Amino acid sequence: MEPNITEEVYEVDKLVLLDCDKLKLTIEKSGFLTAEYNGKTYHRVDPTRLIPFRSKTTYISLSYETEEKEFREIGVIKDMAQLSPEQYELLDKYLEYKYYMPEITKVYSIRDNMRGAIFVKVDTTSGSKTICVHDWYQNFRMLSEDYLYVNDADGNKYFCKDIHKLDKKSLAVLEMFT
Amino acid sequence: MNLITKQPPEALEDIKYSLPFSFANDGESVDGVFTVAGDTIYIFADGKLEEKYKITDFKEFECRHQVGSSMAQGILHNDDVICFCAFTQEQFLRYAEVAKLLEHFIRTGEMITDTGADEPSCPKCGLPLNGAPECVFCQSKSSIMLRLIKLIGPYKKYFITALICTILWQLIWVFTPYLDRLIIDKYVSPRYEDWGGFITIVIAMVSMLLLAGIFEYFNMKNSFKTSLGIGRDLRQEVFTKSQELSMGSISKRTAGELINRVSGDVSKLEEFITANGKDAIVKIMQLFIIGTLLFVMDWKLALLTILPIPFVLMLVKKLYAVMSIRYTKVWKHSTHHSETLHDILNGIRVVKSYGSESREIERYGECSKKWARAVSRAEIMWYMTIPFSRFVLTIGNFLVLYFGGSMILDHEMSLGQLIQFTTYVAMLYEPINWMIELPRTFADASVSAGKVFEILDERSEVSDIQDPVDINIKGDIEFDDVYFGYKAYIPVLKGITCKINKGEMIGIVGHSGVGKSTMINLILRLYDCTQGEIRIDGVPIKNISQHSLRSQVGVVLQETFLFDGSVLDNIAYARPDAPFEEIVKAAKIANAHDFIVKLPDGYNTRVGNKGYQLSGGERQRIAIARALLHDPKIIILDEATASLDTQTEKQIQQALAKLTEGRTTIAIAHRLSTLSNADRLIVLDKGKLAEFGTHNELMKKGGVYYKLVMAQRQTTKMKKANTQPVEA
User: Fold this and answer.
1) Is A112 on the interface with B (CB under 8 A)?
2) Cβ contacts from A onto B, under 8 A
3) What percent of chain B is predicted at pLDDT more than 90?
4) Domain span at residue B544?
5) CB of B23 within 8 Å of any CB in chain A?
C-alpha cells in the first residue's frame, strides 16, 4: 500500500474547503475510502460529519492518519450537493452506514424500571424493537424542540427528526419522558 | 460468551465462531454471517459466500468503533487492511472477543472456543451486564419499599414505641364518638338533667384527650429519632459507597449528580419515612377497625359508605403511574440544575476571563425555569385530580346522611347513633385520603430511592480479592503482557512487557494519548488490566490490598488539588498523625518552608477554595511535601512540572530529586529535558512499548525516541530563532 503523500508542512490552523469538482472518492477493501484530490491520492480516508445533529450533508471533513497515528485533515466538503451524483451517492451511502441511526416511526410504550433505565417499544426504519436505554436522562433526550436522540445500552443510536409529526399516541407516550 | 449466534447458510465443518452482521465492507445493507471454521474465515452475504480468508494470512485483528456501527478488520502481513464486515453495536463485544481469540490463535496456534467471558447483556431485560455474572436490575428480589423498611432495623425500638403510641392514640379517638353518642342520646336529646352522669362523661372525654396528647408526644419524639437516624445512616452509606467505587464508576457521574444523590435524594427518603413510615401501618389498622365497626353498627349504611372507594382506588392507581414519570422528570431537571450550578461555579475563573457572566446567568435561568416547569407540571396534575377524587369519595358521606336521616325520622336510628356513624365515616375516609395522597409522595420518594440504591448496588470494577495481602513494598514493578482499554475491547495499551527495578527512575514518553497516564493508573490500580498481569515485588497487583498498595505509593500530579483547610492540614493529609516537626521537615525538603513562613498565619494559613491563593509552584511544593510525609516506596510524577515555567521547574526539580532519592519513580513529562535524570525511558508508540533503555541507547537507535527528541529540539531552536533580535 502506498503511503499517503504528506504536505511539506501540515497547516493545522488552515480550513481547506474542498473543490468537489477536483475530488474523487472510491471505497477500499479496508472499509475506508480513497480520495484523489489535486493530483494527490489519500488512502484510508475517514469522512466525518462535523455537525451531525444539524446537518447530514454539509461540512463533511475528510481525514486520514499518518504512520505515526497523527490526524491529518485533507479538507472539508462544504456541501455534498456540489459532488457529482455518483460521488454523492457513494459518500452518502458510506456516511449513512458509518452513522447508522434508524429513525423511530412509532412509539408504543415506555417502561421505567425506576433504576435509571427505560425500555422503549418502538417501530423504526430497521424494524420493531424494544430499545433498552441506560441512564435515560442522558441518553434519551431532545436535542431541540423537535429532534429526539436516543443512545441505547449497547451504543446503538436512534433518532426522531420531529416528534410532533408522530401519531398522537406516540407523542403522548414520549412527552412523559422528554 | 456465546460466539455462535447465527449459523452460516452453507454447511461447514468445525465451526468455531459464527456471528451475524448487517453491512458489507462497502456499507451495503446485507443479511450477513461471519464464520470461522477450522483455520478459515468465511464471509456470507444474503446467503452467498462472498469471501474466504486464511487466518494465518493476518497479523492482527481489530474491531473499529464508528458512530452508529462498527467494523471488523484484519491487518495482513504486508500492512494492508481488510474490512470483513460491519455490524450494529450490540454485536461489538462478541466481535471484539472473536478478534481477541483470532489473535491468540495467530500467536499460539490454539483456537479457544469457550473463554469463560460473560454474556454482554442480560437475556431478560437486555441491559448490559458490564462484567457482572447477573443483572443487577433483574436479580434484586426485594422491592425498593422493602429495602427502605429494612433500614428501620437499628431503630426498631424507637419505631415500635412510636407505633404503639400511635395505635393507642388512634384507639382513644375511635372511642370518643361513642362518648359523643352517650351525651347526645342520654342527656342532650331527651334533655335529661343528670349532671352527675353528664360531668362524668365530660371528665372522661377530657382525660382521654390529655392521654392522647401524651401518646402523641412520645410518638413524635420516637418518630423523629427513627427518621433522623435512618437519614444519617443512609447518607453515610451512600457517601462511603461513592468513596469505594472505582475510578471507572465515579467518572460516569458528575460531582453535581453525586452531591444530589448523597444529600437531596437521601433527604427526600428521610422526609418520606418521617411522614409515612409508621403511618402506613396505623392507617391500614384504622381502616380495618373502623370498617368493622361500621358494618357492626349498620351494614347497609356501611355499604353505601364504601361504594365510591373502588373508583377512587382505580383513579389512584392510574395516577401513580403518571406521577412517578413526572417526578422522574422533576428529579432529572433537579440533577441537571445541580450539575449546572456546580459547573458554572467551579469554572468561575473561566467565566470571568471570557466575560460571559450574562450568558451563564441566562443558562442557569433556563435550567432553573425547566426545573420549575417540571415541578409545576407534576403538581398541577396532582391538584387537578385530587379535589375530584376527594369529592367522589365523600359522595358516600352524603348518601349516609340522606338514608341515615330517613332512618332517624322512621325511628330506626337515634341521632346519637347517626352522629357516631358519621364520625366513624369521616375517620374511615382519613386513611383513604392518605392513600390518595400517597402516589405523589411515594412516586417522588421511590425515584429518589431508586437513585440511592443504584449507587449502593453498583459493583466496583476494582475490588480486593477474598484474602488480599498487605506487603511491605520494595519497589520492583513488572508489566507482563498487559492489555488495557477504558472501553471494553478498545485497547489503549497493547502487550506491554517490561521490568522496573527497585530505586530506578523511569521516564515514560510518547505522543499525547498514547497511554502514559494509563500506565500510571494501572500501577495505582485505579483500573485493572484487561489482560496480562502487573506484579509488585513479584506479587500480582490484584492480590495486594488496595489500602496497602496506595498507602505506599505517592503521587504528584500536574494540577495540585488543595483541600479546604490550612497548609498544615494539606501537608498532613498524607499522615494525619504525623508530629509537627516531621511536617516542617517535609516542607523544608520540598523547598516549601520558606514561603510558608512568609504566609500571614504560617502553617495555619487557610488555603484551598476559600483561602489564600498560592501560585502554581507553591501548590506543587506543598504537594511534594505531602508526598514526602507519606514516605512512599513508589513515587508517581504525572507531568508534575508541566504547568510551571522553566525557572520554577528548576526549583521544584531540587525538591523532586530529594523526594525520588532511593525510591522507585515513574515520571511522565512532555518536556523531555525534565527526564534528564531518568535511569531508563519507556517509549510508548501506538499503545505498544516501542523502546526501553537509557537516553544514550535510545538516541543511538534512531527510533521513536530519537524522533521525539529531534522534534523538541527543532521547536526549541525555532523559538530561539524567533526571539533573536532582527538586524537592522
Assistant:
1) yes
2) 128
3) 17
4) 465-552+632-701
5) yes
